[in-house]
Input
Amino acid sequence: MTILGTTLPSAFIAAHWQQKPLLVRGALGHADALIDGDDLAGIACEPDGDARLVFADNGHWRAEHGPFDETVFAQLPTHSWTLLVQAVDQWIPEVGELLREFGFLPRWRLDDIMVSYAADGGGVGPHFDYYDVFLLQACGQRAWQIGQRCDAQSPLRDNPDMKLLRDFNETGHHTVSPGDMLYLPAGIAHWGTAIGDDCITISIGFRAPSKNELLEACGEEPCAEDDIRYRDTPASIDPDPWRINTAAVDNLLALCAPLTLPRDTVLRAFGSLVTEPRYPERIASEAALPAAELTALLGAGQPLALEHHPASRFAYYSDSTQTLLFVDGEPHRSTHAVARGICHGQLSNVSDDEHGLLLQLLKQGSVLIEAWQARR
Output
């Protein structure tokens, strides 16, 4: 049994991914143990926490942005408010572990894990997203209304705080309980409302870079259409979730049409774009690991375990002519074994020529060597 319930990943990709919603009852047991409201409030009070409070009042919504003082939470009303915290996977390891459940999708498509805590009646109003999202209910209940397919031309309300839809045409609705999960493709309107208190929803978002973002990364002028975005095909979803494969690059070249751009230019631009960290300031430089110490660790006869910095992003591309490792927005020439090993967090048989790459990633803080950290 996977987080998709009885639906096989291949069937999900063929019938639902980027196409239509899917409700999975009982997708994850013990979801209520992952996080609570106090955890979220704590992150929201941190100087580098990315959080906002949304208040709903008779069909009107307004937002306040953090970081917040802890006294704010003692003064909240009894109903109709929501606390939303971004990138909770970077703060709470147990939440980050959820990403393992989604290994059937490209890891380089992942945005972050946002978590919301809502009082009765709380929500963020009718809206749509430009990313695919899995909405996992951790605690309490939420009523979800599903609406029409939207795009950049869909009319919005005159609301300076939030991008809310002016029109919402309900096509379905569900009430979810702890452990239930709702998948929504990009562009599908939705509207969630907390039923009772202690409503916690975990949102796992998968982003799709736009054509204009890709063109600008390639050094080209943006085009007029501003909401054309990358789409997966079954062939581009590699069995290795960290790998950008040749089919994905073919999709990118088609996305750039009618421009004909060099394949390597598009690959490098895309790999850099999808691995650009959302919060680069959180990736702190580490004390330099002596080269001799690295050699000793690699020569110990056991695979070397690596830990990714929670704010770092990784991907790699490999074919018969080259291998590129992308880390935090930068491409690095590598070998297939080393690039894959760094992405998967386990290395062995690293050549002397590639010690420099590993030392660089260690120094910039993108990766840590668990054995060395334990001895320091």
